[in-house]
Amino acid sequence: MLALLRKKIVPIGWLICMHILLLFPHQGMPKEDIRLFPHFDKVVHFGFYFLIVFTWCFYLFVNGEYSPRQKRNWGIFITVLAILDGIAVEFLQRSDFIQRDFDWFDALADGIGAICALVAVLLVSPHLPAQKKPL
Predict the structure, then answer these.
(1) d(CA 85, CA 127)
(2) Which residues lie closer than 8 Å to 7 by C-beta, 6 or more apart?
(3) Strand ranges for the chain from DSSP E
(4) Which of 1, 18, 61, 69 has CB atoms 3.0–4.6 Å from 125's, for a disulfide?
(5) What pLDDT, in 10s, does the model give residues 39-66?
(6) Neighbouring residues of 57: CB distance < 8 A, sequence distance ≥ 6
(7) Confidence band, pLDDT 50/70/90 cuts, at residue 115
């Protein structure tokens, strides 16, 4: 599993899949409601953005030779980008083409997921062996 997370295709692939799922037009979605419990979609948003930040940070941290300060700075940069992306996706969802609901709480769940991923990867990465190869 660790070897798979070291590949660039994982964060790139997840980024593409996540945006396809989040920006899929309302007309093409199934009519049945797939909610397991109230606000299930917030858990989905949290998970999407947790995974995107975790996979990008993990890829950078284990494949590069960064100091703890550089890791923190790159992690913060990636997290901020993810939070801004979450807000942008919400605005795109309410467009005439996509016609999905705009919800600030979805953007909040995105941001919380991104921040939790940063904390998780910063806690885990010091215990992982870094590959000594340039990016």
Answers:
(1) 29
(2) 59
(3) none
(4) 61
(5) 778 898 999 999 999 999 988 888 777 7
(6) 71, 74, 75, 78, 117, 118, 121, 122, 125
(7) very high
